[in-house]
């Protein structure tokens, strides 16, 4: 029999913290829709982050209902045991084993959700539920709310107010505790090691896809369950496409390679980007752009500490990258004017970072809800710092030597009580370290 990935006490402790804020409301988390091709071929399934965060349960077609202070308080709906289906789709816990192993008050077959849900919602002040993740579940919730209104008769109560569960739970997930950081550090470690091995494997003549496959092998052999997101493996001018996904072209002598890829461990992901020369030696122009972006990334990381507004990092990146654009002759004029008119976005079209955790763009608010001011960094937050500069190959405003150069450097930063910790520090990014590593590994 399979077992939970982690100690179930972790999930009980999380629920206890959430219960205090939830009060007399009910929270519902459901599995995402299962993606099916041609009616029978299933894509790999990953549990909804919120459902896993509160229960540790990984199976599809599951729903969790949390009712603090009521009996039963924790209710899970799961697939029935079915030997025939398990022959096709793999092991199922079933209601009895799920209740015992995951420490929940009640577990029912998922087929009973419609029958049970109205009763479970009775007496609630409001409902926390994230819409649009699962269209079938959205319809079930809508019917349940209508049925609840009817069941309440002439009490004067209307439809139960519905709030966004992602926003609510995001404020718990944005601050990582010891259990979360243990998983996070493991994801960062295995991802850093995989990037280093991929650098060693890189040489002209290989393909982007070949390196992508090699990277996946490296994270899997170190314990990753899956990629943390769709990897970007972009050689040459492809690095100037921010969400390049084809990953199928040959790697060419004299060009740069940008790899934005990571592994996930116990539902926590890293998010590392490295850029380096395919042949192991930066040209003068490549080094000029790369060193400029690296200097900016380091200066931004250096100011990370509790109390700094997150937006200050974005502002700092925009200003310093625009200065770099001016130094490279990509623009002329005043920095502030270029930023005010958004002209700098031609070469730097994204932000400098985002929260990181169970999802690569993790939950959590960037604005203070009470003051509507940019949120200040707090100890326990983890986010990326990833400045970049992208000069299109057909950009006639740039000198020919810079055209087609795309550079992004991304690390994963934990805010500590007194400053910060770079959890991906082990992944090389200095020019000398990169040049010493590239092409020095297996020639499989």
Helix share, percent: 25-40%
Query: Biggest sheet, strands in spatial order?
Result: 6-5-4-1-7-8
Number of helices: 13
Rg to the nearest angstrom? 25 Å
> What is the count of distinct domains?
2
Q: Under the CATH scheme, which architecture of the largest domain would be assigned?
A: Alpha-Beta Complex
Category by helix and strand content: alpha+beta
CATH C-level class of the largest domain: Alpha Beta
Low-confidence region ranges = none
Q: Using DSSP, what is the number of strands?
A: 19
Instruction: Round the mean pLDDT to the nearest integer and report it.
Output: 95
3D shape: globular
Largest sheet: 6 strands, mixed
Strand % is 15-25%
CATH topology of the largest domain: Creatine Amidinohydrolase
Layout of strands and helices, then pairs:
Blueprint: H1 8-22, E1 26-30, E2 36-37, E3 41-42, H2 49-55, E4 63-66, E5 74-78, H3 83-89, H4 94-102, E6 106-109, H5 113-121, E7 126-129, H6 135-151, E8 161-163, H7 165-173, H8 178-201, H9 208-221, E9 226-227, E10 232-235, E11 256-261, E12 263-265, E13 268-269, E14 272-277, H10 284-302, H11 310-327, H12 335-340, E15 382-385, E16 388-390, E17 406-408, E18 411-415, E19 420-422, H13 431-437
Parallel strand pairs: 1-7, 5-6, 7-8
Antiparallel strand pairs: 1-4, 2-3, 4-5, 9-12, 10-11, 11-14, 12-13, 15-18, 16-17, 18-19
Helix pairs in contact: 5-6, 8-9, 10-11
């Amino acid at each position: 029999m399979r077992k939970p990935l982690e100690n179930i006490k972790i999930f009980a402790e999380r629920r206890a913290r959430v219960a205090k804020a939830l009060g007399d409301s009910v929270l519902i988390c459901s599995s995402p829709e299962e993606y099916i091709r041609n009616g029978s071929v299933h894509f790999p399934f990953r549990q909804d982050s919120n459902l896993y965060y509160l229960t540790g349960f990984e199976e599809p077609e599951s729903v969790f209902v949390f009712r603090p202070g009521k009996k039963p308080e924790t209710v899970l709906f799961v697939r029935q045991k079915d030997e025939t289906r398990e022959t096709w789709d793999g092991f199922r816990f079933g209601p009895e084993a799920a209740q015992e192993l995951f420490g929940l008050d009640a577990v029912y077959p998922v087929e009973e959700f419609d029958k049970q849900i109205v009763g479970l919602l009775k007496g609630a002040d409001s409902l926390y539920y994230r819409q649009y993740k699962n269209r079938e579940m959205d319809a079930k919730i809508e019917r349940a709310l209508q049925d609840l209104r009817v069941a309440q008769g002439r009490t004067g109560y209307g439809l139960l107010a519905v709030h966004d569960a992602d926003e609510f739970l995001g404020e718990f997930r944005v601050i990582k505790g010891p259990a979360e950081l243990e998983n996070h550090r493991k994801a960062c470690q295995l991802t850093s090691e995989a990037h280093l091995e991929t650098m060693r494997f890189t040489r002209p003549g290989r393909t982007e896809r070949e390196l992508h496959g090699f990277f996946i092998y490296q994270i899997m052999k170190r314990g990753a369950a899956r990629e943390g997101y769709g990897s970007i493996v972009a050689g040459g001018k492809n690095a100037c496409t921010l969400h390049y996904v084809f990953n199928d072209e040959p790697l060419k002598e004299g060009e740069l390679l940008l790899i934005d890829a990571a592994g996930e461990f116990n539902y926590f992901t890293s998010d590392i980007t490295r850029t380096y020369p395919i042949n192991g030696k930066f040209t003068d122009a490549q080094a000029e752009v790369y060193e400029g972006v690296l200097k900016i990334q380091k200066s931004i990381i250096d100011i990370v500490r509790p109390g700094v507004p997150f937006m200050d990092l974005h502002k700092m990146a925009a200003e310093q990258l625009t200065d770099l654009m001016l130094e490279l002759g990509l623009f002329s004029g005043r920095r502030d004017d270029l930023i005010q008119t958004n002209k700098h976005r031609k070469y730097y079209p994204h932000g400098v970072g985002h929260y990181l955790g169970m999802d690569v763009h993790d939950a959590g608010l960037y604005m203070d809800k009470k003051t509507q001011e940019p949120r200040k960094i707090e100890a326990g937050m983890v986010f990326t710092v990833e400045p970049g500069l992208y000069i299109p190959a057909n950009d006639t405003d740039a000198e020919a030597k810079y055209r087609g150069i795309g550079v992004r450097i991304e690390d994963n930063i934990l805010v500590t009580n007194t400053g910060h910790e770079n959890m991906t520090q082990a992944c090389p990014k200095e020019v000398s370290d990169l040049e010493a590593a590239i092409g020095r590994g297996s020639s499989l």
